[in-house]
Amino acid sequence: MIEQFAETIRKAAAKGRHLRIRGSGSKDFYAYALTGEVLDTRGYSGIVAYEPTELVFTARAGTPLREVEAALAERGQALACEPPYFGQDATFGGMVASGFSGPRRAAAGSVRDFVLGVRMLNATGEDLRFGGQVMKNVAGFDLSRLITGSFGTLGLILEASLKVLPRPESEATLRFELDEARAIQRMNAWAGQPLPITATCWCDNALTVRLSGAALAVVAARQQLGGDEVADGQAFWEAVREQVMPVFQGTLWRLSIKSTAPPLDLPGSKIMEWNGSLRWVATDAPAQTVFAAAHKAGGYATRFRGGDSGSPIMRLDGGTLALHRRLKAALDPQGLFGPQRLHAEF
C-alpha cells in the first residue's frame, strides 16, 4: 500500500497534478479551497503497536478513530486531548492532520502535545520517519509536531505514535447559572486553584464544569464548588466536542484569545471553552470585524465552518505568512499537496 501511495505521488509530481490527502472527509469543511486529486488513506488501516504499560499507541493513518478509542478503552486508557470526530468515520490520520482538540485540551494538552513521532511520504515519495515512541526523542526541529495540524499540505501521514493517558477514576459535571462576564471571572479564579477541572463550557447564560480524577478529589471539589449536578454529563461534553448544539450553527468563528478578555463585542451566538481562552462565535459579521475583535482581545480568529466559499480562514501578519510559505517550499517545493487548503497565497 505504501508503494502505491509513493507511486501516485511520483506520477502526480511528474505530470504537474495536485493531490488532496483525505481520510473520511470529516474535516473537509475547514478549507479555503479543496482542490486536487483525492488520495484516500482509508485503505492503509490498523493498529501497529500498543504498549499500555508505556502509554504509547501507534496506528496507521486510515484506522477509524472509533477503533482506536475502543482499543484504548479496553485497557482503561484514552486519547488525552479528547479529539472531535465531526463524522462517524473519522480516521486516526485525520485527527493528527487536523490537530483539533476537544473540551479536555486546556487541562491535558493538544493533539500536538501528545504526538511522539510520525511516518510519512514526502513530495518525492520518500518514506520518512520523524520522532519516535518516547517523549524526549527530538534534537533540533520537531517535524513530527509540525506535520500535526498541517491538513495534509506538507506530506502524507502514514502512521503516528501518540502518548495516551489512563481514563479518570471518577467524573462529575456541574452547572452554574452565570452571565458571560461572571463566568469568565469564575473560570479564571478556579483555574488558579488546585481543582480537578478538566473542561469548562459557557453558553445560554450557564457555565458547565467537568471534574475528573480520583473519586475523593472529585467529591471534595463538588462540595467546594457547589452548583447543580448534570445527570448525563458525558452526553453534554460529547455534544460540545462534536458541535451539535444549536449555538454552533451558521458561520462559525474560532477565537483563541486571553482567557481574561471581557465578553466580545460581536453579534451572534457565543460559547466559551478552555477557561475562557477559546471563544466560538456564530455570526454574519464581516471577517475583518471578527479579526479585529480577536486582535483587540489579545489573540487571533479563524473561520472554522461555513461562510462564503473562498473567504479567508485566517489573517496572518507578513512575517508569519512568510514563515508558512518557507515551510511549504522546503517540504513541498512543487506545491503538490493541498494547494490553497489553508492559504489563498499558496
Uncertain runs are none
Mean pLDDT: 94
Q: How many beta strands in the DSSP annotation?
A: 17
- End-to-end separation in angstroms reads 29 Å
CATH architecture of the largest domain: 2-Layer Sandwich
Helix and strand sequence? HEEEEHEHHHEEHEEEHEEHEHEEEHEH
The backbone outline, from C-alpha atoms, is: globular
Tally of helical runs: 11
Strand order of the main beta sheet, please?
Answer: 13-10-12-11-15-16-14-17
Share of helical residues: 25-40%
The proportion of residues in beta strands is 25-35%
Structural class estimated from helices and strands: alpha+beta
**Count of domain modules:** 2
The CATH topology of the largest domain is what? Uridine Diphospho-n-acetylenolpyruvylglucosamine Reductase, domain 3
Key terms for this structure?
346 residues, alpha+beta, Uridine Diphospho-n-acetylenolpyruvylglucosamine Reductase, domain 3, 2 domains, 8-stranded antiparallel β-sheet, 5-stranded antiparallel β-sheet, 11 helices, globular
Structure commentary:
- With 346 residues, the chain is of the alpha+beta class.
- It folds into 2 domains: 175 residues, Uridine Diphospho-n-acetylenolpyruvylglucosamine Reductase, domain 3, CATH 3.30.465; 136 residues.
- Helices cover 29% and strands 25% of the residues.
- It contains 11 helices and 17 strands.
- Strands 13-10-12-11-15-16-14-17 form an 8-stranded antiparallel beta sheet, sandwiched between helices.
- The two termini are 29 Å apart.
